[in-house]
Design brief:
With about 250 residues, the chain is mainly alpha-helical. It is built from ten helices and no strands. Helix 2 (about 20-40) packs parallel to helix 5 and helix 7 (about 165-180) crosses helix 8 (about 195-200).
């Protein structure tokens, strides 16, 4: 546990020193929040679009999912692949650091960053667009924890199988923008073609967005999306542990 906490503290400091990951994790969701807010934020709720609620009430929980996606597919994979490429993982192994400590520190860092970014995003949305507060805080916390773990497991998996930091960064950015435009975090799902919706449903962010939105907007707990997100977490976690390489 002591090793895990030390690694987590070091990883937090290293994250703050990487401008690309900070931009994609924090600045980009905020930028989209204000862009969409200026386009749709003051319009009344449309029963045919945005699930029948105001645009910013729809987008705020969706962009929490976008934060988790940025950490999971951009920050984590590139970070782990960079460690392997520079021989840092080999040195940790030589120091008798367990693989669980290495991966656990990444998950804890993901949680800390996700909580900080979510708080900033929520207060920005509240101040700028007066979005509604979550209708069910307990269910929202449960959805947030599961979604964070799911994207953390996915990020560890990508970092375990991709050979270099450049490859991890390229694949991560490609996945991030594909999910951004096809998961309901840019154009609303109601205006997408059937093909776009099919592709979007194959991506984890689609299900994470719904899982976060439902308790936030008062639609209750979505069991189907819970099973999908939990399945991604379990599958990615199991494969990443087996595929993880120190060098």
């Amino acid at each position: 546990m002591r090793t895990l906490l030390k690694l987590t503290w070091v990883e937090l400091k290293l994250f703050a020193r990487e401008p690309i990951t900070v931009i994609f994790t924090l600045a980009l969701p905020l930028m989209f929040l204000f862009v969409m807010g200026e386009v749709f934020g003051r319009n009344p709720a449309d029963p045919d679009v945005f699930r029948g609620v105001g645009a910013m009430d729809y987008y705020t929980p969706a962009y929490i999912g976008l934060v988790l996606a940025a950490i999971g597919v951009i920050a984590l994979p590139a970070h782990l692949a960079s460690y392997r490429e520079r021989g840092m993982l080999r040195r940790l192994r030589a120091s008798s650091v367990l693989v669980w400590s290495v991966l656990g520190s990444q998950v804890l860092v993901t949680f800390v960053i996700a909580v900080l970014c979510t708080a900033l995003l929520f207060f920005a949305a509240m101040l700028a667009y007066d979005v509604q507060v979550p209708r069910s805080a307990i269910l929202l916390v449960a959805a947030f924890v599961l979604s964070t773990l799911s994207f953390a497991a996915l990020g560890v998996l990508l970092g375990a199988v991709l050979p270099t930091a450049r490859a991890a960064q390229g694949v991560g950015i490609l996945l991030f923008f594909a999910m951004l435009f096809l998961s309901g975090t840019a154009p609303p799902r109601e205006v997408m073609t059937q093909t776009m919706q099919w592709v979007g449903e194959a991506m984890p962010l689609w299900h994470v967005v719904t899982l976060l939105q439902d308790p936030w907007l008062g639609f209750g707990w979505n069991t189907v999306e819970f099973l999908v997100v939990a399945g991604v977490m379990v599958a990615a976690g199991a494969i990443s542990v087996r595929a993880f390489r120190w060098e």
